[in-house]
Amino acid sequence: MNGARFADFAVHSRFLIVVSGIPSPVSLVMNSRSLPAKIALSAAVVALLLGVQAMLGRYFNEYVQQIVLYAGINIILAVSLNLINGITGQFSLGHAGFMAAGAYSAAAFTFYVGPQITARFQNEAAGSNVVFIVALLLSAAAAGIAGLLVGLPSLRLRGDYLAIVTLGFGQIIIVLITNIREVGGAAGMTGLPLMTNFVWVAALMVLCVLSVRNLAISHLGRSMKAVREDEVAAEAVGVDTTRAKVLAFVISSMWAGVAGALQAHYIQSAHPGSFTFIRSIEVVIMVVLGGLGSITGAVVTAVLLTGLTEVLRSITGAFAVGLSLVLFAAVLTLPRYRSAMRQSAMGWLLWLRWPLLSGVALVAGFVFGRDWLEARVAALRFVIYALILIVLMLLRPQGLLGRGELSWSSLRRSRSATTPEAEGASERSEPVDEGVRGTL
C-alpha cells in the first residue's frame, strides 16, 4: 500500500513539474545533489531581476518602463492563449474575459482584505508581497474556474462555434462585473495599491513560458497536439480528448487571470473597458502572427506589437514602419521570383514592381500630405496596423515562425543552410517555372 501511494504521489508530482516548470519533490529526493545548484540558480535569477529593475529605474523614464511591463504582460497573455489556439488547436475569443475574472478577484482581495493583512506585519513591504502573492493565486483560481465553466460545456464544439461560445462567455463576465457594485460597477475599481513591478512581471513571464513549454513536450502536451491534428483519430487511439481540452482551457485561463491581476495592480485600477472583445482580438493576433503552436513566436510578436503600438503614435514612426513593411514584403516574395530573375531582367521588374510602387506612394504621402496625416495620426495608426496583418497573412499565413521554435540549434541549422554548398544544391533542385507564382 505504501508503495502504491508513493507511486501515485510520484505521478502527481510529475504532472506538477510539467505544468509549473518547478522540480517535483520526488525528483529532488532522487537527485539531491542538484538541490544546492538549483537554489543558487534561483537566487541568481532573482538577483538579476532586481538588478535589471534598478537599472530600468535609473537609466530609463517611466514611459519606457511602462512599455517593458506591458510587453511582459502581453507575453503571458499570448503564450497562454497559444496553449488553446496553437497547441490544442481550438479557437478561443474569451481571453479578455478570463483576464477580467483574475483582475477583479485580485483587486477585490487587495482592496478589501489586503490592508488588514498588511497591518499584521511589522515590515510593510513584506506584508504587501504576501498580499500580492495571495491575490495572484486567487486570480489564477478564479480565472481557472471560469475556464473550466467554458471548457466543460464546449467539449462538443470546435472551430467557429467554439469561438462564438468563448466570446459570449467573455461578454457575460464583463456584464456581471459591470453590475456588481462592490467592485465599482461600470465605473470600475480605482485606488488599488501599486504592487506590480518588473521583478513580478519578469518572473511570472518566465514561469509562464517554461510551464507551457514543459507542458507542450509532455505526454499531456502530445495528447493536446493529437487533438489539434485530428480529434477523431486521437480518440480512436485512446487519447482522452476531453481531459486534454479542458486542461488546456483551465491552464490557459489561469495564466490570463494572472496577467489581468498584474495589469490591474500596475495601472492601479480595474475597468470593464480594459477587457473588451478588442483586447481578446489583440491577443489572438499575437498568437496567429507568431505562428500557431510556436511559443517563441508568440513571445516575439507580443514584444513587437507592443512596441509597434507606441511607434505608430507619430507620423515619423508610421512612415518608418511603412517602409519597413515594404522591405519585409519584398524579402518574403523574393523566392517566388528567383528563377525568373535568373532568366532575364523581366524577373527583377516583376519582383520590384509592388515594392517600388508602394515606396513611391509612401514617400509622396509623407512629403505632400504630412499635415493632413498628422491631424489624423490616431486613425493612421490603425490603418498601418491592419496593413501589417494583411501583408503577413497573404505572404506568410503560417506566421513568422510557423510551428517552429527559436533555439540555438535552429539558428545553427539555418546558418549551415546558407553555405555555398547548400545554396548550390537548392539552386539545382529549384523548379524553373515557379518564380512568378504567388499573391504579389
Describe the protein's architecture and organization:
With 440 residues, this protein is mainly alpha-helical. The chain folds into 2 domains: 266 residues, ABC transporter involved in vitamin B12 uptake, BtuC (Orthogonal Bundle); 115 residues, no CATH class. 77% of the residues lie in helices and 1% in strands. The chain has a two-stranded antiparallel ribbon with strand order 1-2. The N terminus and C terminus are likely disordered.
List the helices and strands and how they pair.
Blueprint: H1 2-20, H2 25-30, H3 34-59, H4 62-87, H5 95-119, H6 124-151, H7 160-178, E1 189-190, H8 198-216, H9 219-229, H10 231-236, H11 241-267, E2 269-270, H12 277-290, H13 295-311, H14 315-343, H15 345-368, H16 370-374, H17 377-395, H18 408-417, H19 420-429
Antiparallel strand pairs: 1-2
Strand content: under 5%
CATH architecture of the largest domain: Orthogonal Bundle
Report the total helices.
19
Classify the fold: give the CATH topology of the largest domain: ABC transporter involved in vitamin B12 uptake, BtuC
Stretches where pLDDT is under 50 for at least 5 consecutive residues are 1-33, 425-440
Highest-level CATH class of the largest domain: Mainly Alpha
Judged by helices, strands and strand pairing, the structural class is mainly alpha
How many extended strands? 2
Strands side by side in the biggest sheet: 1-2
Features:
single chain, two-stranded antiparallel ribbon, 440 residues, ABC transporter involved in vitamin B12 uptake, BtuC, 19 helices, mainly alpha, disordered N terminus
